[in-house]
Structure formats: C-alpha cells, structure tokens
Amino acid sequence: DGGGEPITRAERFTWFAGVPVALIAGSMLLSSLGVIGSQGLRVDTFTDMGETASLRTNVSDECRASMIELHGQAAWDDAVAEQKAIDEAGGVEQSVRLSPERIVELRAEKAANAAPIGTGVATIMVMLGLVLALARGVSPSASPAPLLVGALGIVLGLLADILLIPATMSSGATWLILAIPMGLALYGCAHGAVRLAGNELIRVVFPP
Hints:
Elements: H1 9-32, E1 36-37, H2 61-71, H3 73-88, H4 100-113, E2 117-118, H5 119-138, H6 145-163, H7 171-177, H8 179-197, H9 200-205
Parallel strand pairs: 1-2
C-alpha cells in the first residue's frame, strides 16, 4: 500500500471493494424497492392531455397524399386505426386546469406515497460512508473509534429521515433535524480525511 502500513489482502478487499460495493449496491436495491426515492410534492396545475393518433388524419386529400408519401401507407393506416379507436372511446381527453382542492389532494397522495429516505440524503450518506470505508482501509491499525462515530451519524441520519422527516417538511427544518447526525458523520469523515491524506498513493492522485 502507499502509506507504508501493512495491509492484508482481506483488509484491502473488505475496505476498498467489499464495503464500497455493498454501499452502492445496497442504495440501488433500496431505490428499486422504493425505500429511497423522490420526496417531491410538485403537482402540475393542468391534467395530462389524452393520447392522440400518431398522425393527423383530419386533413385535406392533398395533405393526406403528402403524408402518405412522406410516412408511407402503413403508417397512415395505423394512424387511421388509432384515431378510430380514440373516437370510439369518446375522443381525445382535453387538458384542464385542476382546482385548488384537487391540487391539495394530489399533494397529499404524493406525500403519502413518498419514499421514506430522500434521494439527496441517501446520496450524501453513501458518499460519507465511502470516505469512512476508504479511511479504514488505508490505516486498519489506527483506532476505529472516530470512524465508528461517523458511521453512527450516518445510521442516525437515515433513521431520522425515515422516522422524523415527512415529505411535507421544509428543507430548513429537515437539515435542523439532521444537524446532529451530520455533525457526527462529518466528525468521522474529518478524521478519515486526515488518514487518507497520509496515504502516499492518494496524495499522488489528489495532491494537497
């Protein structure tokens, strides 16, 4: 290793590959399960317009001939069939402005279905976790206490996001709740940064 401290193959694999891969893969898995995701409550003020045919069919004979020449007879026939199905279903649904009451209902639905952990918080915690893992890897014989404090902060931050921070909470209040967990996490990462800075290889790649 670049810092002069002996590192076993198992330690190298654990802290430089195993833990980082587990953090990233775990966050991706939780995202696919809906545990990590958007907590945004933005709602459009208009409904979506209904589906339309792939080509305009209500055109003059001259325009129809031009469209067939441009897109082909098959595409035109498909568009005619699509328009017929739309007409039989009642026509194209027009976009309309939502009432204030409906907007409130949709926001409440989004809040109820929001992911327990926000994407932003999860991304920050994964990055901090990677710093702690690499710091442990470059100096496995050093005291793990500061890094464990940082890891505790990450866990507390995620639990706070799940249990104490609803999707309706403002960003200011969110970070006020996360202040202590983030402080612990940054404390651990500060010690980790010092250990990383002492590694010769990392100093070559990221010079001070």
